[in-house]
Write a structure and sequence with these properties.
InterPro entries: Cation_antiport_E. This protein is of the alpha+beta class. The protein has helices at 2-29, 49-61, 91-110, 121-129, and strands at 38-43, 65-71, 80-85. It has one domain (2-111). α1 packs antiparallel against α3 (91-110) and α2 packs across α3 (91-110). The longest helix is centred in the first third of the chain and has 28 residues, at 2-29. It is globular.
């Protein structure tokens, strides 16, 4: 099942790169289409080093977004990413897109998308032990 999620995720990232590139080109070439840059703080459901690295890399490879900082998680707090988004209409729209990307990534790495935010790495370990 993870292979199917992996292929799907690669297709999703490829599509995000294409649509992000088109968005940037069309907004830059049209007069009056200004960027609305913002930095969004996003608490993660990713907790392992691999998941955080893959997610940060996926964000950065997508045109118009860039991970500016990563705050490490603790046993009670999840890791946090600070993402610079160039052409999002609102913080909610930016976070919605990022959470969608994260859900797809976690479906690939864990075999299924998480139901809610992980409060600790212990929860993830318990979730991975379930069949």
């Amino acid at each position: 099942m993870r292979i199917i999620h992996g292929i799907s995720y690669l297709g999703y990232i490829g599509w995000a790169i294409v649509t992000g590139s088109v968005t940037i080109v069309t907004r830059v070439l049209r007069p009056g289409q200004y960027a609305q840059p913002m930095i969004v703080e996003i608490p993660l459901r990713c907790v392992t080093d691999l998941e955080v690295t893959l997610f940060a890399s996926s964000i950065t490879i997508t045109p118009g977004t860039l991970v500016t900082a990563i705050a490490a998680g603790t046993s009670t707090q999840p890791p946090v990413l600070f993402v610079h988004a160039l052409f999002e209409d609102s913080e909610e729209a930016a976070m919605e897109g990022l959470y969608d990307m994260e859900s797809r990534l976690l479906a690939m790495t864990r075999g299924r998308a998480p139901s809610g935010p992980a409060a600790s790495s212990a929860e993830v370990e318990q979730e991975e032990e379930r069949p």
